[in-house]
């Protein structure tokens, strides 16, 4: 992709970019095909910022993307760049929301439709170096007993190097890391959409905002007050093309106790 509009592969991790890309049904289809290469289905709906309003006493839910295919299967796509507490509980809660909408009045339980909650991480959620983690209900006391559940949670890890996945899915994970991708149709389609989003006024304003750069760096797992975290922040700013002066200014806003001399040294050390 070109940089005419300040769009880089890692920009897919931005909520605004991710939702604009994945609400396009063709892009959503391409991504889900890369995740489920053996399944045949057609995405018929893809909604960004899907709000699920429960009863007044229950917690409301706002999901990044909710998609539905021609077989009634529901998919929730969540870009998870910033490390958050209660990650697994949140994924389970989101899954429960989809399951509630997977059976209609008058239908039998054997008609329950499948649901998938898919969290896409910029770091390894389990530190096992796997590209993909699939989480399903199972019988704890027996390995032979099979629980025929219809819901699953999938964690994707952009930094993983183990486990077999499709080339198209690896392309997407490489895109997040600003690594080279293939010339495959799926990733080219996503990149083209990103370029189009990059031409919009909203994206230009967002990408030029120092606050956006701070947020993007923090979403990469930065821990304030730690030298390693500051270096990660510097690396993120450099990827965005920020000048040394802007990098120092932005970091000083978050780390006022760090001297300018130290920041200059760390900038020179960071590639």
Cα-to-Cα separation, first versus last residue: 21 Å
Number of domains: 2
Sum up the overall morphology in one term. globular
The residue fraction in helices comes out at 40-55%
Say how many strands there are: 6
Instruction: Describe the sheet with the most strands.
Output: 6 strands, mixed
Organism: Lactobacillus kalixensis DSM 16043
Protein name: Rpn family recombination-promoting nuclease/putative transposase
Pfam families: PDDEXK_2
InterPro entries: RpnA (IPR010106)
Structural features, described:
The chain has a six-stranded mixed β-sheet, with helices on both faces. The longest helix has 14 residues. It has two domains: 191 residues; 61 residues, no CATH class. The protein has ten helices and six strands. 40% of the residues lie in helices and 16% in strands. It is of the alpha/beta class and 271 residues long. The protein starts with 14 loop residues before the first helix and ends with a helix. The model has no long low-confidence stretch (mean pLDDT 87). The relative contact order is 0.14.
Write the layout of secondary structure elements.
Blueprint: H1 15-22, H2 25-35, E1 43-52, E2 61-69, E3 74-80, H3 87-100, E4 115-121, E5 132-135, E6 151-157, H4 167-176, H5 185-198, H6 201-208, H7 210-219, H8 227-239, H9 244-254, H10 260-269
Helix pairs in contact: 2-4, 2-5, 7-8, 7-9, 9-10
InterPro entries: RpnA (IPR010106)
Pfam family, one: PDDEXK_2
Protein name: Rpn family recombination-promoting nuclease/putative transposase
